[in-house]
Amino acid sequence: MIRLKPTLRLRVAAGFALLGLIVSLALGGWLLWAFRDLEHRLIDEALSAELEDYLARLDRNPRSLPPQTVTLRGYLVQQTPVATLRGDLPPAELGALTPGRHTLEVEGVSYRVAVHRSAGATLYMLHSRAQLARREHRFVLMLILGVTLTALLSATGGWWLAGRVTAPVRGLAERVRGRDPTDPLAPVGADLPNDEVGELARTIDGYLRRLRAFVERERTFVRSVNHELRTPLAVIQGAVEVLDSDPGLEGRTRERVERISRAARGMADLTTALLVLAREGQGQTNPPTPCAVDEVLAECVELHRPLLRHKPVTLQCAIEAHPVLSVARPLLSIALGNLLRNACTYTEKGRIQVTLSQSEVRVEDTGPGIPAEELDCLFAEDLGCRRTIRGEGIGLPLVKRIADVQGWRIAVESHAGRGANFRICFAPSDAVMPPPRPV
Q1: In this structure, are residues 304 and 328 in contact, taking their beta carbons and an 8 Å threshold?
Q2: pLDDT in tens, 81-140
Q3: What class does CATH assign to 178-286?
């Protein structure tokens, strides 16, 4: 599921819109309450005035009729055989009302009702709310329109203000984006004011200085290791070749010499691979020499066969295709060799099947397998994560690093007790035309 992350500017605009909406809703709700309260008060005052006026007229003229207009209706109910002085009965809904003020709907029209009782008579005074209800409806529509406009104006103002506020941050991001930590350009915050953005830029400058020093130390270390290791490795390899050419060398001694030769070659390839990875992205423009995968794989298989000399394990290699990749030969040798070494180390019986197709290399074994909960950290750099399954070496993490650099995909399928299946899937862009074979 893709989760969208809104930008800072959008979040600020949304915050302003929400704040404007809350404030306008609160203000609109208070105005609506005040409008209704004022409406009730005005109607109640009008009813009180009409009651007092009619009661005064009734004292002067006992046969005075209650008022009857478009908005005002009065009923006088006497405790006599005559229902009312007007000769008609009041609405039935009025009979259950107690003295005081009430809101009641009569014949589909909302009224504010005042009830007054005196000796022998009950006076009902009704004030229609129809006109006020229409005004209230228009007022509510105006409030809704005002709340909407306020929210939109708040969002627009927030968007504009956020753009002004975040403009220095975007400018700083443009300065830092794509900048090489080893490039000694002018400081990022050289011409920025002494505010929060300037402080951030100066912090970035300090970080870049420390990073530049670290990269320089790493380059110096790589150059030193490259020089200091290659010389003794060349000496060891030369001495091993001299010993191996001696016809009088005994069987066990020759086996030990071959072991030294394999270790020296593996160390040379590992040194070259680490050097290539350390120099990745440092301006290299020469593409690597095309590498025949079947030749490297066959060489790796033969180099690792001695690891199974004392085990009931069969190592088989099936070459189904002859892909040629644009990759440094030591990188491919280390990636394939580490997978083979793991299979040979952890498989105690059964077989190891290595298969090369046009698009991938598969290494299948009948070893102890890998529990499902350990698969996620199998290629991790953290030693504590993979210590219980595949040891503490750099083998599998180095394979993953090489695959990431080359754009390959590495996959593993395994179940505890049923072996493991490692696959390196080559990137289509790595494939090159194989060189012509001699006739």
Answers
A1: no
A2: 544 444 457 788 888 888 888 888 887 888 888 888 887 788 888 888 888 788 888 888
A3: mainly alpha
